[in-house]
Amino acid sequence: MKVQIRPRGPSSVKLKFTLGLPGPITEFRVNPTTFVIESRPAGSSTWAAVPGGSLDSIIGPYRTDAQAAASDASTSATNAAASDAAALVSRDRAAEWSDKSYNVEVTPGRYSAYHWASVSYNNSVQAGVHKDAAAASAGNAATSESNVASGVTIATTQAGIATAAATQATAWATALGLQVLDFSQPSDPSSVNDWSL
Fold it and tell me: What is the CA radius of gyration of the chain?
């Protein structure tokens, strides 16, 4: 079956149905005055209303479907607007999680990636300062250790010189017939000789 729809003026439509036979079988139109769907057999000049052929009864179901589709479209538009608004809020919140200033909370007790990058950088700078201070302290400790070692060497040398001097003094005192006291041991002061000559 072939259907042709041809406009026939501002408010009428010519429909032709062909059932595989040559030539039109039935024509349909919308009456421009009553808006009733009418038909006529091929070759006839008389139009008759199609049973139940009022415009409302014919297009009513389509109008209902169109109204439902329009309502669905309106709901979809509202939902799309709400989704768009939510997307903007999400975009702005994502920007805050990424870029909000150092030490400024995004939500209570929670901070941005920028904040934590700043904390990490500050900690690395402080670690470098402490590392340098530790290196300086280690250098000072090494110097102190070296100074102690030098002091021990000097003290040992001086002790050797003192021992040699004591040995020499003891030899001279013995040669002169003087009593040599051992001051490393407690002694009776009355036993100390008068060294005056």
Answer: 59
